[in-house]
Amino acid sequence: MAQLSSFDIVSQIDLQEVDNAVNQTKKELQTRFDFKGSKSSVEFLKDMKEKKIHLIADDDMKLRNLQDILKMRMASRKISQKALDFKTPEKAFDSCLRQEVILTQGIPQEKAKEIVKIIKNLSVKVQAAIQGDEIRVSSKSKDDLHSVIQHLRTAPLTLPIQFVNFR
After folding, report:
1. Contact between residue 89 and residue 97 where contact means Cβ atoms under 8 Å apart
2. What does each C-alpha distance from 65 to 38, 56, 83, 133 come to in angstroms?
3. Whose C-alpha in 45, 52, 107, 144 is 20 to 30 A from the C-alpha of 22?
4. pTM of this structure
């Protein structure tokens, strides 16, 4: 009898790399000429429930530049842009703009159901089960599992996914 093989689909980001990217963004803010004398800042907040980044800028143009710097630093640290959820900017003190960036981790229930539906429509013999904020895919054939991974890499998903625990 063939042994079952499996892997897990997860959505995780390395918080240390996020912290490094935010610190690099802060350093670049201090050295850029267009941010001289500006009240612009970046702050990484790590609490138990949510991980978020606060952006503060003098005006809309500086906020867009700050977003671009942050995205560039995240990309250089191999953090997917899909993990960053930019909320709408709001007015803050002294005519500044404040924006919250939520870091998404884990696969929400609705997205997990969507991914399982994509897997079931593939017509390969695999079983997909939602386990909390991850999905376990198992099959007797490793080739079927590889075809699922290949298909999900090209699927238009709105969150970053990784494939772990392949056995």
Report:
1. yes
2. 13, 11, 19, 33
3. 107
4. 0.82
Mean pLDDT of the chain: 87
Quick: pLDDT tens for 52-103. Answer: 999 999 888 999 999 999 999 999 999 988 889 899 999 878 788 999 999 8
Query: Residue 152 has what DSSP assignment?
Result: H
Q: What are phi and psi of 14, to 5 degrees?
A: -80, 110
Residue 17, burial from CB neighbour count under 10 angstroms (0-12, 13-18, 19+): middle
Residue-wise burial string across 128-148, b where 16 or more C-beta atoms lie within 10 A, e elsewhere? beeeeebbebbbeeeebbbbb
Q: So what's the pLDDT on residue 1?
A: 42
Q: Which residues contact 155 (CB under 8 A, 6 or more apart)?
A: 118
Q: What CA–CA distance (Å, rounded) separates 43 from 46?
A: 10
φ, ψ dihedrals at 158, nearest 5°? -100, 5
Dihedral, CA of residue 54, residue 57, residue 61 and residue 63, to nearest 10: -10
